[in-house]
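Let us work through a complete example step by step.
Step 1: write down the sequence.
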Amino acid sequence: MSADGRASATDAVLLGIDDTDNESSPGTGYLAQQLLQELAALDLASPLGATRHQLLVDPRIPYTSHNSSACLLVAPGAGVDVVALHDAAAGFLRRHSAPGSDPGLAVARKADVADDVVAFGRRAKVDVLDQELAHATARRTGTLLSGLGGTEDGVIGALSAVGLHRSGADGFYLWLDGIRGFRAGRYRVEELYRLLHLSDARTLDGARPDGGTLVDVDPWVRPLHLEDGPVLLLEQGPGWRTAPKAEVRRH
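Step 2: predict the structure and record it as tokens.
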């Protein structure tokens, strides 16, 4: 564990989940946040973040709304291994996934996520994949992968979420200490780094506000997952402001 309490590359664990909802239930992103709370309440892990990852939208793929999956980043408690985290998460998803859903769960130490899993996640953004390939990839790379009900198609998105988070350059943060309930307003850029635990705040082309610069912040604050950390996407016009929701969701 690093000095600021964040998990290092050697001890963090990733838990990918998908297909936990139905048309009338809260989405997978909501359940991901509830699972973070559950693991913390059981003293199994400390929550570090949760990211959303957009997969291919195609009529051949059954999905509830947007075909996105979620990945949890946690620091396991002392003596807690990936099997214990998998079993606790699996039990939670069996109890709380919506009726008619097809939940899947993938779990691996972040440092152990193989390039093949990253490649699987990237393929899921552009191609139609199947459970057989997901399970074969998981077996080959030592990733824990479980279908937990229904058709079990959620294993595809769950494994993809782990690979895409591990890539360090996909999706945005559904949960990060400080972003939920963050109030809209004007903040000095150094305040945003401190309050939102950011690794960077910049435009897509790399422009950054100078220290002391005021940034207009929208109520919907979701840092991108870039360079393996939370990056607040900004826009520069007459002044500085956070990028709109539609722009953030494209990533």
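Step 3: interpret the result. The mean pLDDT is 91.
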